[in-house]
Design a protein that fits this description.
Layout lengths: L2 H7 L2 H10 L2 H9 L5 H8 L7 H16 L2 E11 L5 E2 L17 H14 L3 E6 L8 H12 L4 E5 L5 H10 L3 E3 L7 H7 E3 L5 H5 L1 H8 L3 E5 L7 H18 L4 E5 L18 H14 L4 E4 L5 H7 L6 E3 L27 H10 L3 E3 L9
Helix pairs in contact: 2-4, 3-4, 4-12, 4-13, 5-13, 6-7, 7-8, 8-11
Length: 369
Amino acid sequence: MSFASILEKLPLDLFVKILQETTPEKVKQSLNAPIKKIEDFIHLISPAATQSLEKMAQASHELTLQRFGRIIQFYAPLYVSNECVDTCTYCGFNRENEIVRLTLKPLEVLKEARFLMKQGFRHLLLVSGEHPRSTPPEYIAEVTRLLHKEVSSLSLELAPQTEEIYRQWVLAGADGLVVYQETYQKDMYAQVHLAGKKKNFLWRLETPERGAAAGMKRLGIGALLGLSDWRKDAIALVTHAQYLLKTCWRSSLTISIPRIRPAVGGFTPEYFISDREFTQLICALRLCLPDVGIVLSTREHPKLRNGLISLGVTQISAGSRTEPGGYENPNAAGEQFEIEDTRSPQEMAETVRKLGYEAVWKDWDGALN
């Protein structure tokens, strides 16, 4: 049974009722539960749990130290193209937006990768708009083979593909696949994805399963907070993570919960999550998914990023650019969104050190496989 079948039967109305009826006593019981179920997660993200945030933060801090130690892994996104056939209302790459479009040639991608490696990065995330002619599978395979010779770990955040194509990319050297469902609420998904293949909710939802079957050693999932009720998406996200941990156990798993940032097109999110609620969600995720990596991007402001490093986060990006070619030639092409934390990788690494953690630029080597 795929996760799509499970999501379809997910009793969200019941879960919302549990959310509304959660009491401080139920929060306390869930906080102390040795093995946390989905009901415990719901209690911990409920409004009633906000008064227990300090206790949640302490427990999350201790559990993260126990499972991951004092290390923070660094990675960098590398955008290869902003050409896109989709109409996603919140995205700067939306095909309706009048931005300068650019697809890097393979050697230009390598040049960007070398720039990032000089900054210290050894784990790169290839990102692209969805355009079957500009970035076909053959192009991605060529770029992956080229980078694999020099980059220790290469993950892909691209248009969902078939298992066979993922298998080809694994053979080319990719070891990770990242795909965010954006929102798990099917009706809301349809409202913000107006045209293009990304409209296919189920095709996207089952992508991690195809990637794992093809041999991707790392899976990354997430929801884009702001598109829908964040608590409903968080419940679905945790259910998805639990499913993948059980069925795709050969792959490690990370979760990301990016918040919408300003972008060309002027999309205004209808649903809001405060910094305090965002922190509550990070802690709840850590407490209920103790062995899952939690990723924090440069979408968040520096003060919040500094505070979250000790509360459950295990991977961060730094010095990011969200346009193709942006590291060597900033602003030469349209960006996907504005970043909030503009500190350089070196500044970020120094901050991590001052907070008592070690910045890890590489924790994976394909040669050891």
